[in-house]
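Entry 14. Two folds queued back to back today. First construct below, sequence then structure tokens.
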Amino acid sequence: MSPVFRYQNARPEHFNVHYRGKRLLRVKRGSIMYDTARLMELFPRDYEDIPPEFRLIAPIHQSSSLIDGELKPWQGKVRPVRSPICVGRGNGALEQIEVGSVPVGSREESEEALRAAVAAYDNGRGEWPTMTAAQRIACMQDFTRRMVAQKRQIVNLIMWEIAKTLPDSEKEFDRTVAYIQATIDALRNLDNDNSRFQIVEGTIGQIRRTPLGIVLCMGPYNYPLNETFATLIPALIMGNTLVFKPPKFGILLFYPLLEAFRSAFPPGVINTVYGPGAEVVPYMLNSGQINVLTLIGSSRVADHLKKQHPKAHRLRAILGLDAKNAAIILPDADIELAVKECLLGSLSFNGQRCTALKMLIVHQAIAEPFLRRFNEELGKLKVGMPWEKGVSITPLPEPDKLKYLTECLEDARAQGARVLNEGGGAVAGTLFYPAVVFPVKDGMKLYREEQFGPIVPVMPFEDIETALEYVITSDHGQQVSIFGSNADQIGKLVDPLVNQVCRVNINCQCQRGPDVFPFTGRKDSAEGTLSVFDALRSFSIRSMVAAKQTEVSQRLLDDIVQHHKSNFISTRFIF
């Protein structure tokens, strides 16, 4: 039975906002833009209300998993997959639509998947790790063609599983395909640069990048395809073998790709595992056979998992973790530009992005006009179902997220903050209407905790040291945005900030792209660097073949190269 939600309507307060004894902002009295009753009406009344072109043809009940090159039938326990999209049941109740079901694996299945990956790698002697870069590129191109053929179903599943808008779901798919092609091009260039010998101080050497071994890959639900493939694709193409655990939400969208993985890559190169992470993942790490852990998730989980490996120094970790990116809005900022960028930065995909702006630090001198314009523009955002044209705010996939967000609001109110926008924090089913909270201060949950949802905390400042101190004392160090027009002030801010975060954005929101730029973080926000080129380096290590510069060595190396005796010792060029 799908979860059923019941709610009663409640009017929010209308108020003046005071700060340090002075009225900062007057929130207009008037009709409520979004309250619980209005949010309830945004869900389809029944399945027939959904436009036919966006309906699921039928629930997808995943009946197999990919292990050792076979789609093995699954006859064990299954878990229902429910969409954040609900339908009305009458009497103020909403019911989540069932999208399908997935296997609930156990330690036994994870053992089998790990054995297959270990056997395929075969201590570096396997078919995949010993292939030439050109051969692996050919396999990846074959996979990409097969993946593109599944675009329509995958895009539809992204939309249904995590309620990402249809245009953004399409964009995620297209960006992922472009990322794969860019990775192929980067490997081609990298391999060509290494297809020569170096002679230094009487030593002949050839240096290439080689795989690390067995990779355990786990992606996030917010960008289940793109962020997962940002680690999975470079790990694969560099010659590693993988055990892949799909995210908890956005799991079925990988089902159409299992056949593509099976057909494009040798047996055992990629294997899938399902089931409770707390049960299947620690076992694999405890075995000591995992060489690389790649996780997009929380630092708490990453710290726990890394401790499971018996030889921590042998485990390479490539991690994308927590972030609490701030925007510092200086008194000379272009308010219209700052509002536009901060609105997108804080509420795109409901704020469920690691790069989202999760704290706005606004100078007291422009706090009133900034907040007034921000709330005006927020009020224009369309709330609804992901297939609706122009929609911005959609249902949330995490069942407990609405409760947590509501607790954050109650905690902030109890400590003197107010919700500035009409209807802010209204809840119905899986919808949460964005809330702008002011003034947020130390001690509130919203001050340090990553809300990962549609709440916009706003903190005032007068002395720039207050804004700097917030970033310096944060446990997170991914990015920051600065809005202003004074070159001298911005220049002086950049110098300390680049030593606290890994990307400083000037007059624009925090973001990951373009994918050729490095993507990483300091402190608890990341380990390792991801970009098209950096990811290839993250999932490989430089290895070298060396010989003395003698006639005998030269003849031997020439024989190996001329007659293609080795895939490593080679001067072949990939076109």
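Second construct, same run, same settings:
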Amino acid sequence: MSEQIKISVVMNDEKPNAPEKEKNANVLVLTQEPDVTMMSILLQNRLMSGSFCGGRGDCGRCVIQFLEGAPLPTGMERARLTPEELRQGYRLACVTRPKRDCVIKIVESEDRDTPIVTEVNLPSEFIDSNGLKNNLSQNQKPSAMKYEEDQEADLKETLKKSSVISETSAGVTEFSENGEKIDLKYNGCYMIAVDLGTTTIAMQLRDMTTGAVTDTYCEKNPQSIYGTDVLARIEASCNGNGRELQRLVRESIARGLRQFTACLREKQGAEEKILGMCIAGNTAMEHLLMGYDVESLGKAPFVPAQKGLQKISLPGMDFPVYIAPCISAFVGGDVVAGLYALHMLPPFSERENGENSAAADRVQEERTRAALLIDLGTNGEMAITDGQRMIVTATAAGPAFEGSGDMIGTDRIALTAELLRRGILDETGLMAEPYFEEGVPIETRGKDETKGNPGRQEKKEENACYFRKEDVRALQMAKAAVRAGVEILWEEMGRPEIGQIYLAGGFGYYLNVEAAIAIGLLPAYMRGRVRAVGNTSLAGAYELGCALSKGETTGEILEKRLSSIESMNLAKMCAFEGLYLKYMNLEEN
């Protein structure tokens, strides 16, 4: 056994999760074998929130300061930190390995939380007899954290105001409005919908009769301690952390269930029952939830261990749990759920038994031209249909659209468009003087940037962060990959006229469409045709869960509907590299 070294961690703030052993008011003393990364040591002792880039050193945000016993800096640290910072003992926890006793202070950056979007604005909800009720492409959106507060005082009285009442032969009362039926035999029954995202997890408890949201639970995906992107999670699982990744996400879902159970318990005089749960996530997140081997998802030919609908049981749940089917390693259950909610799944000319045909027909009637779904985050998934066929693809966008520090991804796009307009940034991404070296200072709305990191902020303006050339370059690469993907999808579909573009997810919900067009993320012809549809993964999980619970669809039917979808690997497309380089410039086109 190697000789142990002593690591003294100076505690600036109280950390509630820190172990009690060897802890005093200011210093926590740890013993550890040498040549282990500081990130591993700090994660084991719950003193750091996670490895944002999966331990590759790419993000440069897991900063610690050695007050004593600093090891020599690695090449990665020399690239990410300034000479002055290196002299002051700053290092990256994910790559530095202490070799002797040392004293450190954690200077981990505090990121602005990305809002978790749970709102949904489906096309069928937009349309009335006079046309569109809402056009959310103008960014007139409600707060993403404003949850529905619909109360069910008297179900029948509420529905009678706008519906026609009829009696079935079985004596079950139904209400029909514009051809849509609500079966009251599911009154008091609930479905739990789960959007299992790489960054966040959102859950909703929804009434199976009315669709009303009874309660919502959201949290950041706890797996992020192993990296913020899918590749980092896959690598962590392959390195022996698969069981821990599975445990983290299952415990998160269990926390949501406990909240929902308590919510139903508080309802007065009603026998409430949860009939099921439907989980929709990308292919990797669903595999990690199930405990599958994900090695095949991280290397060619990228074959999932399981693609079809799964019906499982989870501990503490006396109802079925459905896992949404995937299309490929890159296009997962979250996209399938979104397509289901938007009535975009083939076959387009027929509807399965019991499906809400009236809503589907209204969507089809509105969609006289091709439709495009874009779901942007750390991965960018896209689907296009002309009403006869569908093609899907995905591209690795990286963290640029999620954002970091004091700016979420949509902030960065709006800022980039503004800097272009003012001439501070040119179309190649080059910043003008005097911003070339330091970047453009951005007000941080009163946040104390020096908290926990006074040394690194001495030369910077008070209450300011910086938008640097590295940030611009990351955004350029992400937007070029997405734009090239959109272009290839359109070409492969035969260059149809696209009548409707749906922006799904939190990114699309907040995106300033004009800014996205100004930097070339979206083509100029999409102006006026873009709709932010919100969290379609969550909406589709609810609708799919209800359909499965009611017997309106089955795994076999879903498999048949998905079998005709064409999945495209952009890496194998000859045109991708040329289009990627073409769209690196920041300009409207």
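Quick look at the second one. DSSP finds 16 helices and 26 strands in the chain. The first strand starts at residue 5 and ends at 10.
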